[in-house]
Amino acid sequence: MYAWIFRTLPGPLWFRIIVALALVAGVVLLLMNYVFPWLSQYSPWTESTIGLMLL
Amino acid sequence: MTRSAVRARTRPTVGQRLLGGFGEILITLGIILLLFVGWELWWTNIDADRAQTQVTSEFVQGLQVGPGDGTSVPERDFGPAPITEIPDGETFGVFYIPRFGSNFAHPVTNGVGMDVLNNVGIGHYPETQEPGELGNFAVAAHRQTHGQVFWNIDKFQAGDKIYLQTRKGFYAYEWRDTEIVHPSQGEVLLPVPHDPGAKPTTSTLTMTSCHPPFTTRMRIIAYAELESWRPADAGPPAEIADLVKKTMEK
Known about the structure:
Chain A is mainly alpha-helical. Chain A has helices at 2-8, 13-40. Helix content of chain B is 29%, strand content 25%.
C-alpha cells in the first residue's frame, strides 16, 4: 500500500520524499484536529465529575 | 540466485501482497492508537490552555479592580461575603491557586458537561450553591488532559489559600482536607458534604477531580472553607496581587 503510493507519486526522488512527508503531516493534522476530538466523546477515560445522579 | 528466486522477489504472489497489505494496516492502526494517546495527553492541553487564557482575559476585561490607582486597600475585615449569582452556562470567575503554580489563573464556568471541562477548564456543579452562599460551592476539572487544571489537587498543605475572583470581588478559601471517594458518591456535593438534611453554617468550596492520575477509577475531593473576602474596589489580596495584575493586563 505505502510502497504503491510512493511509486505513484510523480517527480524525482527528493520531491517524492517531500510530498510523502507532507501527506503524513496532513493525515496527522486531520486526526488531531477532527478525528480525535470526535472520537474522544466516546472515550471513558476523562471523566472527572462525581455523582452522575445529581447531574 | 536462481531464476525463480529473482522472480519471487520482484513479483510477490497475491498471498504475499495481501499479507503485506494487512501488516501495513495493522502497523497503521498501531501508530494511530499511539497518536490518539499523544493527542489526549498532550495536544488537548495546548488547545485547552489557549482557550482558557482567552476566556480568562475576556472575563477580566470587564472588571474594575482596586481603587483605580493600581494599589490595594490594606487587609481588614470587609464584612460578610455577598453572593455572586451565577448565570446559566456563563463564565463567572477566575480561580487563583498559588499551590498549583505561581501563574495559576483559570476561569470557572457554570456546568460540568464535557463542553465546559474539555474547553474552559473548571466547571461549577449547577445544582450546588453559589460563591458566598451558605452551603457547598462545588467545582470539577480534569486531573490530566484538556489543560489538566487540577493536576496538583493532591498537593494542598495546611494554610493553603484558594482565591476566587468574581465581578463582586475576591473570595479567599482555606484548604481544610482532602478525601478519595467512589465516583458514585454524590453526597460530597451536598450543602454539608456527607450529611443529608443538615443545615449549612459555613460556605464550603468543594473541588473534585480524577484519582489516581491517568485513571477514572476514583475521585479526589478537596474541601476548603470561605475565610475572608475583599470587594472588587478594595483590590486583590496581597498573595495574588501580582498575578491578578498580570492576568488583567493580558
